[in-house]
Amino acid sequence: xFVRILAHVANEQTESMPERRFxxxxxxxxxxxxxxxxxxxSIENGKLVYEQAACNRCHTIRDLGAMYSPDLTEVxxxxxxxxxxxxxxxxxxxxxxxxxxxxxxxxDGRLLTGLVIEETNxxxxxxxxxxxxDKIETVAKSSIEHRKIAEVSSMPEGLLxxxxxxxILDLLAYIQNSAK
Length: 180
Description:
The structure is a single chain. The protein is an alpha+beta fold. It is built from 5 helices and 7 strands. The longest helix has 13 residues, at 165-177. It folds into 2 domains: 5-95 and 154-177, Cytochrome Bc1 Complex, Chain D, domain 2, CATH 1.10.760.10; 101-149, SH3 type barrels. The chain starts with a helix and ends with a helix. Helix 2 (43-52) crosses helix 5.
């Protein structure tokens, strides 16, 4: 099965992205202790995987990338090795409060979901799709009937299901190396 989750969501041309086939529905425990032993991994190949998996469409490393998702340079101060891998293959396992998706029911019956990027006493600004950060919804707080934090990350699971173990370990090494 061919996977192009991000391309579909973004409705963009993907001619520059090589076709990749499904390899495995990865779980962090499939890797054993390998994520904690990344010495000698290919940082260059990890960067290539980072780009092919379209991580840079949502994330930033060293001020390069998107604006509304965690800066991976900072993430590696909290997560390394196996814990970092767990965050990548199961992004909902722990969601930082600044990046929690919110579900907002407004008085016209619409249910909006997305990341609140700005909030005042009168209104909030919501980014419904992190792949389209220029499409922002402004919601008057007086029109909000119900508001709840989602338990699911805006980062979809399965983004690495078309990559090999070696490629995923190189990706982890690249992300961890970015903090140096």
